[in-house]
Amino acid sequence: MDIKQLKFLIALDQTRHFGKAAELCHVTQPTLSMRLRSLEDELDLVLVTRGQRFEGFTEAGERVLAWAKALLAAHDGLQAEAANCRGQLVGSLRLGMVPLSSLNPMDLVKPLSQQYPELSFQFLSMSSEQILDGLSRNQLDLGLCYLDQVDPEHFDVIELATTHMGLLFDRRHFRFDQAELTWECLTEVPLGLLSQGMHYRQSIALSFRSRGLAPSPILESDSTFQLVQAVNAGICCAIMPLQLGIEALNQDLQMVPITSASTNAPMGLLMRRTAPRSALAEKCFEEARSIFASNQNQPPDGPQV
């Protein structure tokens, strides 16, 4: 058994396709299949259900896959730790993030990438529960999530600024002359919202419900990108964090603040407290603390609620 076999197994889980997994690992499909067969022979287990195409993992395969992810994370952490001992910061920072946070992740990534050019980044869109689990299993280095379920005994936390909300619209299709919008105004606007059950959507629903309002969104999605696409097409407007900077992606996108609009729970950047904890995570966490403190001391770029 070697690290490459574990990487092949994890790539198959990511792609759910033998050919795409091989492409991701820069090997031929027969090579990937042969190495996975070899791993099964060594473990004396069937890990993958095969037909004409990939059909999933067996129960044993799912259990081995979980160990493979933990072992690969430990391997990457060892490599990063060795580099740190040589005075380098290399590797891939695995950052789990909830959709629509109070932080534009580029505010963190840009200064880190400029200071440490050998550093790469993996962004994973996850729920707060998934992020806490990923950090606990050492499958993530840092997590950006809501803090209402976080046990501070198990995580180091940098609490972020309150997430204020605004209405994102495309000025080619909509026009708002007010400096701020009320929740009552939004009931007359075609809205696109994150899917029900998602934390950010729950804050929006509570804000409407507390005012006796019940809007009917014309579009729901668990993808921020799809919401922005719908806004750009003029299908709807969307309630987004003011600090996220989405309106800067397109000259026609604009944001107007919503009065008394913020998420219910605070948000923060998390790192697990217990070992093993990579030097990469520790260094980036401390850099983040400095970056966020600097940003909070700067005057805001736009209107605040």
Task: Describe the protein in words.
- With 305 residues, this protein is α/β, with parallel strands linked by helices.
- The protein folds into three domains: 65 residues, Arc Repressor Mutant, subunit A (Orthogonal Bundle), CATH 1.10.10; 100 residues, 3-Layer(aba) Sandwich (D-Maltodextrin-Binding Protein, domain 2), CATH 3.40.190.10; 99 residues, D-Maltodextrin-Binding Protein, domain 2 (3-Layer(aba) Sandwich).
- It is built from ten helices and twelve strands.
- Helix 1 packs across helix 2.
- It is globular, with a radius of gyration of 22 Å.
- The C terminus is likely disordered.
Give a nutshell description of this structure:
The chain has helices at residues 3-15, 18-24, 29-43, 59-85, 106-115, 128-136, 183-186, 199-209, 224-232, 279-296, and strands spanning 48-50, 54-57, 91-97, 119-125, 142-146, 155-159, 164-170, 191-194, 219-221, 237-241, 253-262, 267-272.
